[in-house]
Amino acid sequence: MDDHIGTLQAGKEADIAVIDLHSTPLIDARMKHCDSVEEALFIQMSMADDRAIKAVYVNGRLAHERDAAPTAPVD
Fold first, then answer.
1. How would you classify residue 72: left for phi > 0, otherwise alpha for psi between -120 and 50, otherwise beta?
2. What pLDDT, in 10s, does the model give residues 26-53?
3. In this structure, are residues 56 and 63 in contact, taking their beta carbons and an 8 Å threshold?
4. H or E segment at 64?
5. Is 16 helix (H, G, I), strand (E, B) or coil?
6. How many alpha carbons lie under 13 Å from residue 30 in its C-beta half-sphere?
7. Alpha helices, H only, the chain
8. For the chain, what is the radius of gyration of the CA atoms?
9. Buried b (16+ CB within 10 A) or exposed e, 19-35
10. d(C-alpha 5, C-alpha 8), whole Å
């Protein structure tokens, strides 16, 4: 499977979530005192908020974008 997954190289399959590290006023205030990537991830996990998900890519294609206009469901 190494030729299909495992990296973000062009042509490989990937599911990726893009996180807004300053998505709410409370999270933004806490992030101002963050000193490491590990701490940033801990803050995001412990203060979990669905508004932090900026975009989701499934198999390399945009599946969700927080600020995009709503679209009709696909049948």
1. beta
2. 999 999 999 999 999 999 999 988 889 9
3. yes
4. strand 61-65
5. strand
6. 16
7. 25-31, 37-46
8. 15
9. ebeebeeebeebbeeee
10. 8
The C-alpha atoms of residue 51 and residue 66 are separated, in whole angstroms, by 8
Tokens 């294609």 identify what position?
61
Question: Side chain identity at 45, as an amino acid letter?
Answer: M
| Residue 61 to residue 75: CA distance in whole angstroms | 19
**The model's pTM:** 0.67
DSSP-based three-state secondary structure for 67: coil
C-alpha–C-alpha distance, residues 33 and 15, integer Å = 30
